[in-house]
Write a structure and sequence with these properties.
Chain lengths: ~425, ~350
């Protein structure tokens, strides 16, 4: 291998120091805004939101399912490398896993801030309800984070050991601790890691699909009182849109981190492969959503029809047409349509960003419209747009996610030291 | 109109005061005859009754009266007398001084104090306290009698002291048809206390649950405020307590709270449950436990709301719920509400 000589070169973090400062400044602003908004959230309680008893779930819940989806999607991309051993995907294995962990942490922050009694966040682990999807979900999330961390460990352990070997003092102890003291770099130890990585991945796949994200879809779908959610296809669409957003995220991260952190050139074949996955997921997502919409409208159930009217023609219809249809389907589809564009990193970053932003609107359009229609004739209609406190805290929690990701990317060997392929 | 008597009002028969007194006296049963049917000593009863009238007229004091009869009553009524709370001993307008009351052989203490004690004892015996009763509470609302005055909503707010944005009961007012063929229905909507409650099904911490008496309880000490039940309720009966207050409208609005589900939580304070929790109608469980009807039922001007035991076939509500006029809201949801409506 030509890279043998540079095999143990380990210099993570930004290539350009000015970019580093600028980036941390941006993240710092986001976190500061978030801290300020969180102060209001904590002192004024839930009254600082625009939520009501008619629309009890809003921006925080939408972002929560958004980040759960992002995480599940990114994780499933990682399994293509470590379980299905798709050629050339190993390079993005750790990127995907680490992004999945951070997304999940952010998702849980959103759940937490949404609780009326934030001090009771641990209660679901003390008292349970077998029939409650939410009760199951909380446990699935914890198990899932456990799987993600286990996988990242087995994926990265050998490189942590190599880095520990090359450094000294505090740094050595830091990396040795992350490797949990297993510092051998033999072939044998590597195949042990890969075996366990695969096993954890195999457990993780059904967990992510059926419990974590499918389950989050079920959480909504069981609400018989809300016909818009109450469909069997709903959790499936949840999983597909998760795959879409997760793959787009990984594609974006792959380009940005390779360019800005590793200072290397992007592998056009890998990029094309990810881009084609995104195409596939857009097609399936759009098709299933169309089927779901058709079934809803064909049912002529007034609740369904009126909810779809709210989505398509209501005051928030811009989010449906511009963000959901435009940014998450049409615009990226155009960018992905040409082979040469699919192999151009900057275009693919734009396509990935477009999807990642567009899916936010998908999540809002899941959560809010179903609550606009009253559950019974004679009760008032719902109205909802997040307050500045809700936006501010959301920006802050996303900022925390970006900060954690950046710190991780600056310290951890997320790019395999040996290149990309299994040795 | 002849004005022979200044006191006479038009349309009212001219009857003198003496005539009225005579009529009353005529109707009054003979005490001796009445008391003859009772096991207790007739002479003692008549003497006590006559002296009680003297107390009422202010000729003797309550203290003198009880000192005079304490011994005789203890002898005559035994246990029953000794263990009975003295109705005359009550804070405020008592007719017996505390000193005298304490010297009497009947167990002194106000009716209230004794009632509270016995309620607590009953609760323990019933194993489970609140909501463990034998009844299965149900409500029947006669829509033909409902005039849409919203007094149930007001009575509920004042009884349960619900904050702004929380209203356990609302009246859904609907107009149907086009002029001139317009009908209007008013449908009061409390919590349905469903037999298959979707809210209970979704609660991740089992903070909301069915009690033995059919009422769906919310444990404010356990609810984490995730509002999943709010989403799941097909009747929109659940409300989140955002912590707002009527402080601008009423001084010390939060000083008094209602002992919902039998728990007295003291004054309403920031960060303290039920703020940050989900709330809903409890069929006024705290009133039911005292043998009172829910506030909405008691206040209803048209007597449209009825409360009772659905499992007792002789009860009014059971019979009404069984009538051909009876229906439940959203019957096809399978929730099986314990609130019935009469068409």
């Amino acid at each position: 291998m030509s890279t043998q000589s540079s095999r143990f070169e380990f210099d993570p973090g930004f290539e350009d120091d000015r970019l580093r400062v600028a980036w941390y400044a941006v993240v710092g602003v986001l976190v500061t805004v978030g801290a300020y908004a969180t102060y209001f959230r904590l002192t004024e309680g839930m009254a600082s939101t625009n939520l009501t008893s008619i629309v009890p779930w809003g921006a925080w819940v939408a972002f929560y399912i958004y980040f759960v989806g992002l995480s599940a999607g990114a994780f499933l991309v990682s399994t293509m490398a470590n379980v299905f051993e798709v050629e050339g995907m190993h390079r993005i294995d750790r990127d995907a896993l680490f992004a999945a962990i951070i997304s999940m942490a952010v998702a849980l922050l959103f759940v937490w801030i949404d609780l009326g009694r934030m001090d009771r966040m641990y209660f679901p682990f003390i008292w349970r309800q077998l029939t409650s999807a939410l009760s199951w979900e909380v446990h699935a999330y914890v198990a899932y984070i456990g799987i993600l961390v286990t996988e990242l460990y087995f994926s990265m352990r050998i490189d942590l050991a190599r880095v520990a070997e090359r450094t000294s003092g505090l740094k050595e102890r830091f990396y040795a601790a992350l490797a949990l003291g297993r510092l051998e770099t033999s072939e044998e130890s590597q195949s042990f890691d890969q075996r366990w990585l695969k096993r954890a991945g195999i457990v993780g796949i059904p967990l992510a699909i059926f419990m974590v994200h499918g389950g989050t879809g079920v959480l909504f779908a069981v609400s018989k009182a809300r016909p818009y959610w109450n469909s069997g296809l709903f959790p499936v669409i949840f999983v597909i849109s998760a795959l879409l957003s997760g793959t787009a995220l990984v594609m974006m991260i792959y380009v940005l981190r390779t360019r800005l952190f590793d200072g290397e050139s992007v592998d056009p074949d890998l990029l094309d492969r990810l881009a084609q996955l995104v195409i596939g997921f857009i097609v399936v997502d759009a098709a299933l959503t169309a089927i779901e919409t058709f079934i809803a409208i064909a049912s002529v159930h007034p609740h369904e029809i009126e909810t779809w009217q709210v989505i398509m023609y209501g005051p928030m219809s811009w989010s449906f047409w511009w963000f959901m249809i435009g940014f998450s389907w049409v615009f990226p589809m155009v960018l992905l349509s040409k082979r040469s564009w699919r192999r151009t990193p900057s275009v693919m970053v734009l396509a990935g960003l477009s999807v990642v932003v567009g899916i936010v609107a998908v999540r809002f359009n899941i959560v809010v419209p179903a609550q606009v229609m009253p559950v019974m004739e004679g009760l008032p209609h719902g109205m909802y747009f997040p307050t500045l406190v809700e936006w501010g805290t959301s920006v802050g929690m996303i900022g925390v996610g970006l900060l954690l990701y950046t710190i991780g990317a600056e310290t951890l060997p997320l790019t395999p030291l040996t290149g990309g392929e299994h040795e | 109109m002849s004005a022979t008597d200044d006191d006479t009002l038009p349309g009212i028969p001219n009857v003198g005061k003496a005539d009225l007194d005579a009529m009353v006296e005529n109707e009054r049963p003979d005490p001796r005859e009445e008391l003859a049917d009772v096991e207790a000593d007739t002479d003692l009863g008549i003497a006590m009754a006559e002296d009680a009238q003297r107390v009422a007229r202010g000729e003797i004091t309550g203290d003198e009266y009880w000192e005079k009869y304490d011994e005789a009553a203890a002898e005559e009524f035994g246990e029953a007398y000794l263990e009975t709370p003295n109705p005359a001993v009550d804070a405020g307008d008592q007719t017996v001084s505390t000193d005298t009351a304490e010297s009497l052989s009947c167990s002194v203490g106000s009716m209230d104090a004794v009632a509270t004690e016995s309620a607590q004892v009953d609760g323990e015996e019933a194993d489970g306290g609140i909501g463990a009763g034998d009844e299965k509470w149900g409500m029947v609302i006669d829509l033909q009698k409902c005039v849409g005055c919203d007094s149930c909503t007001v009575a509920c707010k004042s009884e349960n002291r619900t904050p702004p944005g929380v209203s356990y009961n609302v009246v859904m007012e609907e107009e149907h048809g086009e002029f001139p063929n317009v009908t209007r229905t008013n449908v009061p909507r409390p919590c349905m206390q469903c037999d298959n409650p979707p809210c209970v099904q979704v609660c991740p911490v089992s903070a909301t649950y069915k009690m033995d008496d059919g009422v769906v309880n919310i444990d404010y000490d356990r609810c984490i405020g995730c509002r999943y039940c709010n989403i799941a309720c097909p009747y929109g009966a659940r409300y989140f307590d955002f912590g707002e207050n009527y402080d601008d409208e009423v001084d010390e609005a939060g000083e008094l709270t209602s002992p919902e589900y039998g728990v007295d939580r003291g004054p309403r304070e920031e960060g303290k449950s039920p703020i940050g929790n989900i709330r809903k109608c409890s069929f006024c469980t705290h009133r039911l436990e005292r043998g009172e009807e829910p506030a909405c039922v008691e206040t209803c001007v048209g007597d449209a709301r009825n409360m009772g035991d659905l499992e007792n076939p002789d009860s009014d509500v059971a019979q009404m719920a069984d009538s051909s006029r009876a229906f439940q809201l959203k019957e096809d949801e399978g929730t099986d509400p314990n609130v019935y409506y009469l068409k």
